[in-house]
């Protein structure tokens, strides 16, 4: 197993790093955040029923919608909103909505994925109908799998689709399916893929019903033949993971239902095991990051081009500068608080 996921643990007693994010933007309505989008110098926050634009020191509501928004992205001069009743585009100039019916018997199904690939094409996943690509001002069906749970694109031009019967990946014209049965050595530990979480380092985190694995940026081409770094859970059993960000030289931050958790980088000289080993990985503690109550529990996190950490919750949006983030990530643990926890198991141990 590669060192990326070595020794993730159940959350035990660990040092608590205190972060004081500034600025903090209150967001009216206390709605659950869906997407935090940056387009040039403009920042948008999409919540379950609203679209906000950051104007000066405040997020200003620009659009409200009756049907709950489940996913969103930005492309050129339009926001794409995936709702429980179809796709809408929203002009970033006028904020007028325009519905885009899908082909098939249900033109406005529940949308579970909307994203832009590395070549600029738009993709839409509709639960019950499959996956569609927007080309020539029309939708073309690309995948007929009905149970679509999510989708993303990665910088290597791959398109990834989370389904309830495995993970599908398109490279060029070819689709590859990863599932529990490992057909043609394309194996993941669980068929129910609940969500896909790309991080800022180019890694793709695959969250399943009974495991979490990662396609590493520097190893995606050979992922079919190698074992993927895999753990059972992050924090504790049943802890939902909302997002992950990589902090260069320090570690990885996870936004979870337990709050913000930091996994420090491996210490110098830390030995890793070969992928085929049956050994349980060494123990390691995650570090819970204490945020002010006004920040709430972040469900979105993102590191921008200036290396600032954006955190969004139902309470609003907070931003950590690069300096604050480094202080947060490098806070030394309290030796009195160290305590062994139960190890999270590698993929070999899950099988």
From TrEMBL:
Signal peptide: 1-19
Transmembrane regions listed in the UniProt entry: none
InterPro entries hit by this protein: WD40/YVTN_repeat-like_dom_sf (IPR015943)
Gene3D superfamilies on file: YVTN repeat-like/Quinoprotein amine dehydrogenase (2.130.10.10)
Disordered: annotated span: 328-351
Record keywords: Signal
Keyword field contains Signal: yes
Protein name: Transcriptional regulator
Organism: Hymenobacter armeniacus
Upper lineage: Bacteria, Pseudomonadati, Bacteroidota, Cytophagia, Cytophagales
């Amino acid at each position: 197993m590669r060192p990326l996921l070595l020794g993730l643990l159940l959350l035990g007693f660990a040092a608590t790093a205190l972060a004081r994010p500034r600025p903090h933007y209150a967001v009216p309505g206390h709605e659950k955040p869906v997407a935090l989008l940056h387009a040039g110098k403009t920042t948008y926050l999409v919540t379950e029923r609203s679209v906000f634009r950051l104007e000066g020191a405040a997020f200003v509501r620009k659009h409200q919608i009756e049907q709950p928004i489940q996913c969103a992205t930005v492309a050129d001069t339009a926001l794409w909103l995936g709702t429980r009743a179809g796709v809408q585009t929203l002009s970033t100039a006028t904020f007028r909505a325009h519905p885009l019916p899908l082909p098939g018997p249900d033109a406005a199904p529940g949308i579970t994925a909307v994203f832009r690939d590395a070549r600029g094409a738009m993709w839409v996943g509709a639960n019950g109908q499959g996956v569609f690509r927007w080309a020539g001002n029309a939708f073309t069906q690309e995948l007929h799998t009905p149970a679509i749970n999510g989708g993303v694109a990665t910088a290597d031009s791959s398109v990834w689709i989370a389904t309830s019967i495995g993970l599908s990946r398109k490279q060029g014209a070819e689709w590859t399916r990863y599932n529990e049965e490992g057909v043609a050595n394309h194996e993941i530990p669980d068929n129910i893929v609940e969500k896909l979480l790309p991080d800022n380092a180019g890694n793709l985190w695959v969250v399943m019903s009974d495991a979490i694995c990662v396609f590493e940026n520097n190893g995606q081409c050979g992922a079919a033949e190698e074992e993927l770094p895999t753990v059972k859970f992050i924090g504790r059993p049943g802890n939902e993971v909302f997002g992950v960000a990589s902090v260069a030289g320090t570690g990885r931050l996870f936004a979870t239902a337990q709050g913000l958790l930091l996994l420090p980088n491996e210490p110098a000289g830390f030995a890793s095991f070969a992928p085929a080993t049956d050994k349980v990985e060494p123990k390691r503690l995650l570090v819970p990051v204490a945020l002010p109550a006004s920040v709430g529990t972040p469900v979105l996190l993102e590191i921008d081009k200036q290396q600032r950490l954006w955190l969004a919750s139902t309470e609003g949006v907070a931003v950590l500068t690069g300096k604050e983030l480094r202080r947060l990530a490098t806070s030394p643990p309290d030796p009195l608080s160290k305590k062994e926890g139960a190890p999270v198991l590698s993929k070999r141990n899950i099988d």
